[in-house]
Q: What sequence folds into this?
């Protein structure tokens, strides 16, 4: 993610209108826009593996699964991000065209340059989404998956999974071996 050279602050509506005219995607945080940079092939393969498996698991139900071209709005006045994988099971998102607002699951595949942001400031933004139940971070350099899950007391709990573990995504009632997300992925 790279800050736009034009440091003019925009309202959320100005951002949405402006971004439609751009050749690349931009995230929007606190009035500023940030260009989205491309990821590595392992990053893409991991996201695709999970999105494909989620789509198969949720087929025929009310949930929709989207990948990195799907924008998520944190609030009417808030940030807009492009997570690697997002699932919404909320009726209000069923007819969404420009962005989702009510996801239950958000997944980010980590890269060394974005890991601190994804774990910190971005997760802080995502926690403002009332419908979000799980936030998953997947390492693109080694077999590791961290799932932050909102418990019944409103506290985010961390569940870490490593090689050989079975992952459970409670928000969509999906169990799978961690190897599924790393299928055909070369970890350099």
A:
């Amino acid at each position: 993610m790279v800050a736009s050279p034009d440091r003019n602050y925009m309202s959320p509506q100005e951002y949405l209108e402006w971004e439609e005219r751009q050749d690349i995607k931009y995230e929007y945080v606190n009035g500023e826009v940030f260009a989205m940079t491309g990821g590595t092939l392992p990053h893409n393969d991991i996201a695709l593996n999970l999105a494909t498996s989620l789509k198969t698991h949720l087929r025929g139900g009310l949930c929709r699964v989207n990948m990195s071209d799907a924008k998520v709005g944190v609030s009417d006045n808030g940030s807009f991000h492009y997570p690697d994988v997002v699932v919404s099971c909320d009726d209000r998102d069923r007819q969404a065209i420009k962005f989702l607002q009510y996801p239950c699951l958000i997944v980010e595949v980590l890269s060394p340059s974005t890991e601190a942001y994804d774990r910190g400031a971005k997760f802080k933004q995502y926690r403002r989404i009332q419908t979000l139940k799980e936030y998953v971070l997947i390492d693109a350099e080694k077999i590791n998956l961290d799932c932050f899950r909102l418990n019944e007391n409103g506290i985010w709990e961390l569940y870490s999974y490593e090689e050989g573990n079975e992952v459970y995504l409670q928000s969509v009632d999906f169990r799978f071996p961690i190897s599924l997300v790393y299928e055909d992925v070369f970890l350099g």
